[in-house]
Design a protein that fits this description.
InterPro entries: Homeodomain-like_sf, HTH-type_TetR-like_transc_reg, HTH_TetR, KstR2_TetR_C, Tet_transcr_reg_TetR-rel_C_sf. This is TetR/AcrR family transcriptional regulator. The chain is mainly alpha-helical and 405 residues long. The protein has helices spanning 12-27, 34-41, 45-48, 55-74, 83-100, 107-111, 117-141, 146-162, 173-188, 228-243, 250-257, 261-264, 271-294, 300-317, 319-327, 334-358, 364-384, 391-404. Helix 10 (228-243) crosses helix 13 and helix 14 runs antiparallel to helix 16 (334-358).
Length: 405
């Protein structure tokens, strides 16, 4: 009698994509290999190729699934009787799904850039349709907002919903859901100051043309007058943000800065040192700005208000650096990663300490959930740019979430 074989799970392809998504979010796309995915799934590397031709196809399946689930959540209340009920059903579905898939909620935002541009465009169009549908649900409840304000509040609410993926704070499931939903409700009922004029933020400078035989021409953008070391660091940050750490070479950084590749090594030993320098730069600036903001504050509310203004201004001014800080940490040398994670914890502790004083009866883990939601709003809106997501409006939104809400 022949030996029976274990049946292959019908959802094996989906399981592979989910495990891969968790690994991509935890380590970064380029730090995960097919063998890593296979080991986590409990199969061999060649077995993955029965389902996917390569690693990029695994990522594509994972991101496509995430975007499809997002659309399904937004449509969850389609049969509800009122706009408010439809919006509530969509938000609850989104929060539940995010907590179910906490390890992959940021996959689309940070790892989709590694996909084929055409596929990226299709996914972005699908995602944008769902976001617009959510905005229309909000307008059904608050028609006085207008589309620009509704779009801003929708983006902020989605940042809150995604925020559990940015931290490891633990709460019982029911409390976690309710805490996130409470924050979302505060955001969506917020009163915003009037929009400001056209954004005066500088656009991203062009990286310049091909280098001359001897020395590339100095760039004419916002970094042109910086000393060489600072110019290299600034351009490295910009390129790491645009393409991802692994897609940028020393030659790319040198060309963007107007410096021969060989001359880059006069200032930095390699990409890893450039990345570490960017992280230390961000940490140092933030620590000094935070200390200055808190000096002389008379009450916890005043201190938190100053901290909000300072952090929002810093993040909007350094959007590229903030994005690299949030996404490329796994590419740091281990010793640098430990030190910088400790610095990140100290910064979050400052927020949660002040917030706890304003909410003395609230469970500490819920306070941390709320603080991380606020920090995620700032990081996301800073990258949106434009007058709708201005510093003043973002600060006002955070005050309502953390102080008056």
């Amino acid at each position: 009698m022949p030996t029976s074989q274990r049946a292959r799970p019908k959802d094996r392809k989906e399981a592979i994509a989910l495990v891969a998504a968790e690994l991509f979010c935890a380590r970064g796309y380029h730090n995960v290999g097919i063998e890593d995915i296979a080991q986590e799934v409990g199969i061999t590397g060649p077995a993955i190729y029965r389902h996917f031709p390569n690693k990029q196809a695994v990522l594509a399946a994972a991101v496509e699934e995430l975007v499809a689930r997002f659309a399904g959540c937004v449509a969850a209340g389609a049969d509800a009787a009122t706009p408010g009920e439809r919006l509530d059903a969509a938000l609850r579905a989104l929060v539940r799904y995010t907590l179910d898939r906490r390890g992959v909620a940021r996959l689309y935002q940070w790892e989709a850039r590694h996909l084929d541009p055409g596929f990226q465009a299709d996914l972005a169009a699908s995602f944008d349709r769902s976001v617009r549908a959510l905005r229309e649900l909000l307008l059904g409840v608050r028609p006085e907002l207008g589309r620009r304000n509704a779009a801003l509040l929708t983006s902020a609410a989605l940042s809150v919903i995604a925020s559990p993926a940015t931290h490891r704070v633990s709460l019982p499931r029911a409390k976690a859901e309710q805490t996130v939903l409470d924050c979302v409700a505060t955001v969506l009922t917020a009163d915003l100051p009037a929009p400001e004029g056209p954004s005066d933020r500088e656009g991203r400078p062009a990286s310049g043309g091909p280098p001359a035989p001897d020395e590339p021409p100095a760039p004419e953008g916002r970094f042109a007058l910086l000393p060489r070391r600072e110019r290299l660091l600034a351009e490295a940050i910009r390129l790491f943000d645009e393409r991802g750490y692994h897609q940028v070479s020393i030659a790319d950084i040198g060309q963007a800065a107007g410096i021969n590749a060989s001359s880059v090594y006069t200032h930095f030993t390699g990409k890893a040192e450039l990345l570490a320098a960017a992280y230390y730069r961000a940490t140092s600036r933030l620590e000094h700005l935070t200390a200055a903001a808190l000096a002389g504050a008379g009450t916890p509310a005043e201190a938190l208000s100053k901290l909000i203004d300072t952090y929002v201004a810093y993040t909007f001014d350094q959007a590229d650096l903030t994005a690299v800080y949030l996404t490329e940490g796994e590419n740091l040398p281990p010793a640098d990663l430990r030190r910088l994670r400790a610095a990140q914890r100290r910064h979050v502790d400052t927020w949660t300490g002040l917030l706890a004083e304003l909410r003395p009866g609230e469970e500490p883990a819920r306070v941390r959930f709320r603080a991380h939601a606020a920090l995620n709003i700032v990081a996301d809106l800073a990258r949106a740019a434009g007058p709708s997501a201005s510093e003043a409006r973002t600060s006002a939104l955070l005050r309502q979430l953390l102080i008056t809400g």
